[in-house]
Amino acid sequence: MPAYPKLRHLDIRPIHHRGRPALLVRDPLELSGRYLILPQALGPALLLCDGQRDVEGIEAALMVQWGVRLGRGVIDELLAALDEALFLDNARSAEAMARARQAYREAPFRSPAIAGNGYPAEAEELRTYFDELLAGVEDGAAPAHGRGLISPHIDYSRGGEVYARVWKEAEEMARAAELVIVFGTDHYAGYNPITLTLQHYATPYGVLPTQIDIVQALAKTIGPEKAFAGELFHRQEHSIELVLTWLHHMRGGQPVEIVPILTGSFMPFIENGREPSADPLLRDLLATLRQEAAGYNTLVLASGDLAHIGPAFGGEPVGIIERAELRAHDDAILKHLAAGDEEGFWGYIKSVQDSKNVCGVSPFYLALKWLGQVEGRVAGYDVCPADEQNTSVVSICGMVFG
């Protein structure tokens, strides 16, 4: 264990465990397949595991900054548990990550991460499930020459109707596509703007092959080390998986080449005042994509949800007033998206400091930027519960672009 312990990038969420406040600590990469449930009082100790303090420094800072007295034995026990779970940034976790990355790259394809849990793993059962959802919505087919769509990536059990609406409209577009570029929210890679992979994506219907030449061209443009640094996040990230499964269904199980791109948070642009349009990496990425996709009938797919508000996301409980404010917020977003106005969309997000935690900011922006002058229409909208008390919600939408 290093003298100055530092946490890896983890998913830490407040929960109640056995009637008491606690913290659920998970690794998005699941290097060890383990998680920890810790007393809430240990939260400050986790914050202090930043690589800047030794054990004595953590103990002293807890007293000075937090007024918390934890014995050396408690801190040692916490650090040992974190190390055992591969939650610390050290040689053990680095070796585990290297093994996981090698196994991921050597596999014939990226296996569905949540099939059998989030949706049926067997093709026939999944086909029946999707067809029942589709039968419950009205026809509204978009022309086959349509160029793009926005799909939610919330679980199917909550977002099923919106998925069905947007994908029913996009059926001819999906069937006609020769290449599908997917911009999907990267929920856990933080500020890493773009993460590529050379792996193919499997669904219960078979394998959707990744267009290797295009991905390699993109990697050359932005730098291979930067492009693939977070490649392992593709293994567990659901945002691309859930929309590609619908794509594969609407194509009747027929494969199509894809370019799967995970996109990180745009919060740095809010913090530093810069504009995404002026970012060299994003500009060069889109330019290379346009060049490489020339000659294909290309469909651009943006996978993202809208607002995330309430205690489940660190906010206040959502009541009638907050729901009315949410609808006004989402209406403003939908107006810009439908107009193909990525700069107006970004301007609105920036003006409200993304206060409602829209997790589709980067895929929506990049998809519209690639599409250029385009108009869309809303194909479904819903507000979904995000906790048992219905005091937290997630809003979602579907949209089709001609």
Please outline what is shown here.
This protein folds into two domains: 11-101, Outer Surface Protein A, domain 3 (Alpha-Beta Complex); 110-401, Protocatechuate 4,5-dioxygenase, Chain B (3-Layer(aba) Sandwich). 43% of the residues lie in helices and 18% in strands.
3D architecture notes:
The structure is a single chain. The strands form three sheets. Strands 4, 5, 6, 9, 10, 11, 12 and 13 form an eight-stranded mixed beta sheet that branches. A three-stranded antiparallel beta sheet has the order 1-2-3, with no helix packed on it. Strand 1 (11-17) and strand 2 form a beta hairpin. Helices cover 43% and strands 18% of the residues. The protein has 402 residues and is of the alpha+beta class. It has helices at residues 43-47, 55-66, 72-84, 91-106, 123-135, 156-169, 171-176, 212-222, 224-228, 233-236, 238-250, 267-272, 280-293, 320-338, 342-351, 361-371, and strands at 11-17, 20-26, 35-39, 148-151, 179-185, 194-195, 201-203, 206-208, 257-263, 298-303, 308-309, 376-385, 393-401. It contains 16 helices and 13 strands. Helix 8 (212-222) packs antiparallel against helix 13 (280-293), helix 14 (320-338) packs antiparallel against helix 15 and helix 15 runs antiparallel to helix 16.
- Domain tally: 2
Let me know the CATH homologous superfamily of the largest domain. LigB-like
Order of helices and strands: EEEHHHHHEHHEEEEHHHHEHHEEHHHEE
Q: What percent of residues are in strands?
A: 15-25%
Number of helical runs?
16
The fold-level CATH name of the largest domain is Protocatechuate 4,5-dioxygenase, Chain B
Arithmetic mean pLDDT: 94
Stretches with pLDDT under 50, minimum 5 residues: none
CATH architecture of the largest domain: 3-Layer(aba) Sandwich
Largest sheet report: 8 strands, mixed
Query: Any idea what the radius of gyration is?
Result: 22 Å
Shape, per Cα inertia axes: globular
Helical content stands at 40-55%
> Would you count the extended β strands for me?
13
CATH class of the largest domain: Alpha Beta
Question: How far apart are the termini?
Answer: 56 Å
* Helix-strand category: alpha+beta
